[in-house]
Amino acid sequence: xxxxxIKIRTTPDHSEAYEDLLLSAGCAAVTFxxxxxxxxxxxxxxxxxxxxxxxxxxxxxxEHNLEDTLSYLKQGHEQLYPGMPIPTIKAEILEDxxxxxxxxxxxxxxxxxxxxxxxxxxxxxxxxxxVNLMLDPGLAFGTGTHPTTALCLEWLDSQSLQQEFxxxxxxxxxxxxIAALLLGxxxxxxxxxxxxxxxxxxxxxNRNQLPDDILHVYLPENTPDTQAxxxxxxxxxxxxxxLAPTLESLVKPGGKLCLSGxxxxxxxxxRNTYSQWFDLDPVAEKEGWIRVTGTKRT
Length: 298
Fold this sequence. Notes:
By secondary structure, the protein is of the alpha/beta class. The chain folds into 2 domains: 94 residues, Alpha-Beta Plaits, CATH 3.30.70.120; 155 residues, Rossmann fold (3-Layer(aba) Sandwich), CATH 3.40.50. It is 30% helix and 29% strand. The strands form 3 sheets. Strands 8, 9, 10, 11, 12, 13, 14 and 15 form an 8-stranded mixed sheet that branches. A 4-stranded antiparallel sheet has the order 2-3-1-4, covered by helices on one side. It is elongated and about 70 Å long. The chain starts with a strand and ends with a strand. About 2% of the residues have low confidence.
């Protein structure tokens, strides 16, 4: 069925009040969008910042009375903020679609490097002889569509991983660890703070018909005291700096390190942090994001 959307353009200070108004007016769901182009790449832990110009959208059933709802919102605004001009409010009909089918049609196989493809389960692999990682989007981060994931996958494709032990720190969907296994690694560990990510990694391992015993997953506090030939961590700059001593300790002398989840402006801090243990390569860049790689000194 079609839906009625009501959009209110406001600021973070007023967003919660307008959200409450929309919910009390009977909307089924509320979403927040950036009204301009103001990315928030790495919020502080425990915070949920909004953009300085935020659009709040309330989704209503199509038979909802628009005139009564707009009148209710205006009255609510006057009670909350007497004398303040009412914000811009727009209403539109959202036509009914098979949203799942449309989403599936737009998600297609992607190639990373020379050998590696990431393919959704409902599409045939373009090259059956390539290294094909079967992965469906889910709750955990990591499908290959984000530049940081792409940078890591391209780097893994360029490495000789035969019979290596790999750690995927901040594994999310498990895409990097599973890619390493498909590219020749002997076994891998996935580490994440989110139990759902650990479950997603296990599910994706099974989806790729790999045995359970070649990839084990752990919460950070349960990570085994071991060292890998290669460690990949696609997280964010803040945690990568805080975790530097931990990550360094998980890499063998002579082992490889691959870090991403980083903006170009964060290169200096990351290089200064990790150069005390690693000989670092020139950075790789994609759409404003970077990848930092290096070899641990012996």
